[in-house]
């Protein structure tokens, strides 16, 4: 897929519908072993936030491709001492073939992309989590054989995961429902962007009614109620978000074959119950595995690996 070679992926909407379909198809081929591209590329991981799945899945994906990984921990590199992003980006551009950045500010990613010629991948920012959504879409497609027309209900905080899910759903013609407390809705600019991007079949519903939101839904999706950097408000959020907990009662209002997703880490007993995350409807572990396959497909595409 030559159209993605050298491209930055700072948000899920950096992929067109055709490109997203092709990345997901490639991810499925890589997962099945039908494609085994190899390279001698070097991936840099610059993570300002803690990570388990993103760090490990990116690393294993690149190692399986035959490449190398350098973990650029800010605490042991000059970025942790205040070196400007403009300088760091231009230096890393001379050493690496691709850089995945996990940061608090979307603007940091844009600066890296401006000053580095190598592909920059958003490994999570305050605004979006595009790599997560590629894995989510892959999981939904594996379970239902399609994405178009599927109804996905997201419950909880209208955060970066919700933003990328809304945009990804718009591009793929899905019905997205987002149930949040009134004060925690997704960014209105993201919603408007999705409406402009939306293809035939896309619908977006914002509501504060969790039961109405899940009625007939094929996918129930949740995330922690306090994201990284919001730990101080975690306790105060519990009573506000408790009606949005994904539990057996809420699940009973969804489609009988509905699946449950969670991007992890999970706070069992808060946003999701033990019974649901370990129950027959859960596809959380397939979803976590698919991070590796989706990101591998993305790196193969932007690096032009044969």
Automatic annotation (TrEMBL):
The record lists the catalysed reaction(s) as:
carbamoyl phosphate + L-ornithine = L-citrulline + phosphate + H(+)
Subcellular localization, per the record? Cytoplasm
User: Per UniProt, which keywords does this protein have?
Assistant: Amino-acid biosynthesis, Arginine biosynthesis, Cytoplasm, Transferase
Q: Which PANTHER family match?
A: ORNITHINE CARBAMOYLTRANSFERASE, MITOCHONDRIAL, ORNITHINE TRANSCARBAMYLASE, MITOCHONDRIAL
Q: Where does carbamoyl phosphate bind?
A: 51-54, 78, 102, 129-132, 263-264, 291
Q: Which amino acids does the record list as binding L-ornithine?
A: 160, 223, 227-228
Keyword Amino-acid biosynthesis listed: yes
The cross-references to NCBIfam families, in alphabetical order and at most eight, read: orni_carb_tr, PRK00779.1
* Record-annotated Aspartate/ornithine carbamoyltransferase carbamoyl-P binding domain positions: 7-142
Give start and end of each Aspartate/ornithine carbamoyltransferase Asp/Orn-binding domain. Answer: 148-301
Q: Which SUPFAM superfamilies match?
A: Aspartate/ornithine carbamoyltransferase (SSF53671)
Query: For this UniProt entry, what is the primary localization, expressed as one broad class?
Result: cytoplasm
Pathway the protein takes part in: Amino-acid biosynthesis; L-arginine biosynthesis; L-arginine from L-ornithine and carbamoyl phosphate: step 1/3
Q: What is its EC number?
A: 2.1.3.3
Q: What class of enzyme is it?
A: transferase
Q: Which GO terms describe its cellular component?
A: cytoplasm
Q: Which family does it belong to?
A: Belongs to the aspartate/ornithine carbamoyltransferase superfamily. OTCase family.
Q: What GO MF terms are annotated? A: amino acid binding; ornithine carbamoyltransferase activity
InterPro entries xrefs: Asp/Orn_carbamoyltranf_P-bd, Asp/Orn_carbamoylTrfase, Asp/Orn_carbamoylTrfase_sf, Asp_carbamoyltransf_Asp/Orn-bd, Orn/put_carbamltrans, OTCase_ArgI
Q: What is this protein called?
A: Ornithine carbamoyltransferase
